[in-house]
Here is the input.
Amino acid sequence: MSGIGNQFWEKTKYKHLGQSDQQKGVTQPKLQLDADSQAKLIDLPSIGQFQPQQDSLRTVIENRRSVRKFSKDPLSLPELSWLLWATQGVTMSVPHATGGYVTRRTVPSAGGRHAFETYLVINNVAGLAPGLYRFLAVEHKLVEVVPESAFAPKFVAACLSQNWMLNSAVIFAWVAVAERMTWRYNERGYRYMLLDAGHVGQNLYLAAESINGGACGIAAYDDDLVNDLLGLDGESRFVIYIGTCGRRPG
Ligand SMILES: Cc1cc2nc3c(=O)[nH]c(=O)nc-3n(C[C@H](O)[C@H](O)[C@H](O)COP(=O)(O)O)c2cc1C
Here is the structure.
């Protein structure tokens, strides 16, 4: 077998997979990482009454582009709430046979596993101090993680110094919590997390377009540096995809 990519593809075929934790009767992992009990929680506006400027699906699909130039106008909190709902919003919770719940969300996920946490580097959102936050999808709230404006430049440096990212309003960093997926699918779950990330990224692109904003997917980043900055071990939890978003110029 040639390179590591081919080996990964081969070894994640069904014939190589052993018994999963689910098959062994292990309880499913929690739906969401706990928030630090001392951390500040921030309510997000409900998207119930939110009306995007453009709600023609055809138009948003047709106009979608990767945007790397942004206006200095901040995004509003309702707009951020809309982007978070579009990328990870919980639309239904259903009881699971092994106890607890599974969620249905605005994005599909293999086996409904929803293995991602959303970290946000806030640069320019009205009413939110710059810094690092995490989205609590179940409660539709934010939890403050590192409320420092110095965080964004460090994060962007870890994205191979793509300095234009500093002019975006918000940087999304989707973090895989591997056991939420491998509990059911073992090593094959890594394929599924990559596929899931694509769905999330596309919804960010389309939701950004619907508010006359723009997004750009980011895969050029130093894994070890971004994981260190977010306090992740890089194995059981790691950044799987990044996306920027801001208001389009002019
Ligand atoms: C998985 C993925 C990773 C990407 N990584 C980067 C990146 O690190 N930096 C960047 O400027 N653009 C990045 N892009 C944007 C692509 O360069 C862009 O989609 C491509 O040039 C086509 O342009 P369009 O999206 O406007 O159609 C990425 C896109 C995808 C889907």
Notes: The CA atoms of residues 33 and 197 lie 18 Å apart. The chain has a mean pLDDT of 96.
